[in-house]
Design brief:
The structure holds 2 protein chains of 2 kinds. By secondary structure, chain A is α+β, with helices and mostly antiparallel strands. Chain A has 15 helices and 21 strands. In chain A, strands 1-21-20-17-16 form a 5-stranded mixed sheet. In chain A, strands 11-3-2-18-19 form a 5-stranded mixed sheet. The radius of gyration of chain A is 23 Å and the shape is globular. In chain B, helix 1 packs antiparallel against helix 7 and helix 5 runs antiparallel to helix 6. The chains are: A alpha+beta, B mainly alpha. Chains A and B meet through helix 2, helix 9, strand 5 and strand 7 of A and helix 1, helix 5 and helix 6 of B.
């Protein structure tokens, strides 16, 4: 909310003016009281996540902050144009990489990055997914460093999560402070489930007759994101299935219903490639469906996102994204990439080792904020530990500068206080359209000074407003 | 709908029903203990027998007293048949079938779990028992009310109703199974004060003392009680009422799916065989055998429903 000028209160970003005026008018305890009620609300609706390996707190709440993050209409238009360009490029890249591999032939990215990458699925070669769509759903992680500086931190092209928080955070704000929404023109986010259903249905497989049956595939009630899986299925009126509900019947993937096995047309899967099909991938998987991949290749079912999309959000490939965008769209990238050192290259590794105290080092295949080093916040011992890791397996890591992430205020008992945030809008891709709901998930590092926003590491969330101006 | 979902709804409501039924039994048992009408120890043992928990109880506790039985059946989390465990099981099932429930039903179930989880977390002083049992019944009523008021009357609704009534028929029959000897005509029709208290306890354990009095006046007699609990079609916990509902719900499914399952046939056969006769015939053939056979048939029906509607994976 505050610009770079700091906390003197005279430097409010224009988009926050209306909210600030509202806040100043509130009686002393109202916002604090409401913010305490928010926790009860979330507990009641059961919007929790499970933490692996912690028996006691098996269902935990993600902290919620009542101060919204606000983007002006202009900021949003600029951002969404950039995201659209990037998503289009990612889909074209996936098609290319699983067909003629022109980008490799052109020498724009090294062959080894694909060939030696676990996220690349040779079994997808030469296959056209229904509607030509690989990435039905993408959650692009964006950080901001200045008024006009947005960086893409990650392109989550596998199974991005968090959209239930976008919807429920808005829901609770509407319940707590309805007058805000009457006073301030804020874009709706509630269309997301119907858009999702529409865009999934638009990619029905060739075998589908009539209205497509859509289902969400979850690993089950013990999965950390189970709430979200059931929430999405419920909101878009789709079945929520587990691998044990499915089997291959007459060349189709069919679910066990109270009236026998019925074919499913589109499966929005929330399990990883590896676990999809024990016959084709990890043979130990209990979560998937034996033979589903063969049905997929024969046009009997749509799997969203397509298997093998992980190659596009692989951290080793990330540094090539500007080239990828240019190669497929013929345009300059509208959104910036965070400068990235590839530790696999000796001279870059040397520089990284030299500057570990100031860099962020990430595992190429890591996620969830685990296995990373934040140089400026790390102890000497941690830095030395990473130095050893880097030397042992340089191609397992990339490094990036520590960005001066923008802060937005959170509500604390002592008043407003700045915290670092990131932002994940959700992009829906269908054969003839790309839709981005005006809003997204803002994650906030609740601890003062912290840069880690992951919910598994004490991050919280807040509502995100895009102004209709 | 998914077989798994139908199963989850069926079991969610079985657990809710059983939890409520256990709360009622505890209430009736507690009253006996308070009024010292008869031996409270044998009354507690009969509560344990009715809920099928006598053996499990004996492995954990010695004598059946108000304190030990209450703890075992109310708040003992290691006992899967305690009220707290069953409310949790109902809530776990609800969570697994979240998409087949309205938001209201899910929230009522989840809140009910949170409320009771807190309420039953420590030792409950005897003085608080009536309030505690009332809260349990109220929480259950909230779930039932939300279900009644907001759920679509589709196949899912029929499965949850089937769970409710299969379980309720089982619970009522179990009470009769344990107390049948009190209702035999050979026992004096006049009844000592002690008998009358025992009879009232039976009615209390199905929350039907008032409605019985409404229908029969103040004279409590065992034949009328048996009739009330078995054949009376307006009494919501009678076997006849439960089977009318079960046949209705299976009938709706038959129509909805255009498929007459074996479960439909079986339910109607049970209704004709067991509920299509007079009390005299039941007494003549032996009340105890009748109840035992009914319990077995009822559990066979539950198995048939499980098979006919693909609740589980079969090879």
């Amino acid at each position: 909310m505050l610009g770079s000028g700091g906390g003197n209160g005279e430097d409010i970003r224009p988009a926050y003016q209306a909210f600030r005026q509202w806040l100043d008018r509130q009686p002393d305890n109202r916002v604090l009281r409401k913010s305490e009620q928010a926790e009860n609300f979330f507990r009641k609706i059961g919007i929790t996540f499970n933490v692996y390996g912690e028996d006691e707190a098996d269902e935990r709440l993600i902290p919620f902050d009542v101060v919204p993050r606000v983007l002006s209409g202009n900021e949003w238009r600029k951002l969404s144009k950039g995201i659209e360009q990037r998503v289009r490029a990612i889909n074209a890249f996936l098609h290319d990489i699983y067909h003629r591999q022109e980008i490799l032939r052109a020498g724009r990215i090294p062959q080894s990055l694909i060939a030696n990458n676990d996220a690349f699925l040779p079994k997808m070669m030469g296959f056209d997914p229904p509607g030509g769509i690989y990435t039905h759903i993408i959650g692009t992680d964006i950080v901001r460093t200045g008024p006009d500086e947005f960086y893409v931190l990650e392109d989550n092209a596998r199974t991005p999560s968090g959209v239930s928080y976008m919807l429920e955070n808005r829901e609770i704000m509407l319940q707590m402070f309805p007058e805000l929404f009457a006073e301030i023109p804020i874009c709706e986010v509630s269309d997301y489930p119907s858009w999702l259903r529409r865009s999934l249905s638009a990619c029905a497989p060739p075998a589908c007759m009539g209205r497509p049956t859509v289902a969400v595939l979850t690993p089950g009630t013990y999965n950390s994101a189970y709430f979200e899986h059931s929430f999405i299925a419920d909101q878009m009126g789709a079945e929520l299935i587990e691998g044990s509900d499915l089997r291959v019947v007459d060349g189709r993937v069919a679910m066990r219903t109270t009236q026998g096995y019925k074919p499913v047309d589109v499966i929005y899967r929330r399990i990883d490639d590896d676990f999809l099909d024990p016959l084709n991938f990890n043979p130990d998987s209990m979560l998937g469906v034996p033979g589903i991949f063969d049905v997929y290749r024969a046009g009997g079912v749509t799997i969203a996102n397509a298997p093998g999309t992980g190659i596009a959000d692989d951290k080793a490939l990330y540094s090539y994204m500007p080239d990828i965008v240019e190669f497929y769209t013929g345009e300059r990238p509208l959104l910036q990439n965070v400068p990235t050192w590839r530790c696999s290259e000796p001279d870059q590794l040397a520089e990284v080792l030299d500057r570990l105290e100031e860099l962020v080092v990430k595992e190429v295949h890591g996620s969830g904020g685990y296995g990373m080093l934040i140089g400026p916040a790390a102890s000497k011992a941690e830095i030395e530990e990473f130095r050893a890791k880097l030397k042992a397996k340089p191609d397992g890591y990339i490094a990036q500068p520590t960005l001066a992430l923008s802060t937005v205020p959170i509500y604390t008992e002592q008043g407003l206080a700045p915290r670092h945030v990131d932002f994940r809008p959700f992009v829906l891709m269908a054969p003839n359209s790309i839709d981005i709901v005006p809003g997204g998930l803002t994650r906030v590092a609740m601890n003062e000074g912290s840069l880690v926003v992951n919910s598994s590491q004490g991050g919280g969330t807040k509502d995100t407003w895009v102004l209709d101006d | 709908m998914l077989g798994k979902t139908a199963s989850g709804l069926f079991w969610m409501f079985r657990y809710l029903e059983r939890a409520e039924s256990t709360a009622r039994l505890l209430d009736a048992g507690f009253r006996i203990a308070l009024t010292r009408a008869g031996s409270s120890r044998s009354e507690w043992e009969s509560v344990l027998t009715t809920t099928g928990q006598l053996q499990g109880f004996r492995q954990r506790h010695g004598e059946a007293t108000s304190t030990t039985v209450m703890e075992y059946l109310l708040s003992d989390r290691s006992n899967p048949a305690s009220i707290i465990s069953m409310v949790k099981a109902a809530r776990d099932n609800a969570r697994a079938v979240r998409i087949a429930l309205t938001r209201e039903v899910w929230e009522a179930t989840n809140e009910s779990w949170m409320t009771l989880d807190k309420l039953l977390s420590g030792r409950i002083p005897e003085a608080d028992l009536p309030d505690t049992l009332t809260t349990i019944r109220q929480q259950n009523a909230l779930v039932r009310g939300a279900t009644n008021g907001t759920m679509l009357r589709n196949d899912g609704y029929n499965f949850l109703r089937l769970g409710t009534f299969v379980e309720r028929a089982d619970n009522t029959a179990r009470i009769l199974d344990v107390k049948y000897y009190l209702l035999l005509p050979s026992i004096s029709q006049v009844g000592s004060t002690l008998d009358i208290k025992q009879w009232e306890t039976i009615l209390r354990s199905v929350s039907a003392l008032r409605s019985y009095t409404w229908l029969h006046g103040a004279t409590v007699n065992p034949r009328d009680i048996a009739q009330f609990l078995i054949l009376h079609e307006q009494m919501p916990r009678s076997l006849a009422f439960c089977y009318n509902k079960i046949c209705d719900n299976l009938g709706y499914l038959e129509k909805d799916y255009d498929n007459r399952t074996q479960a439909c046939e079986m339910a109607e056969a049970i209704r004709t065989d067991y509920l299509g006769r007079s009390m005299e015939m039941i007494f003549d053939d032996g009340l105890h055998e009748y109840i035992e056979d009914f319990l077995a048939s009822n559990s066979r029906l539950a198995k048939q429903i499980t098979a006919d509607y693909s609740f589980e994976v079969t090879a």
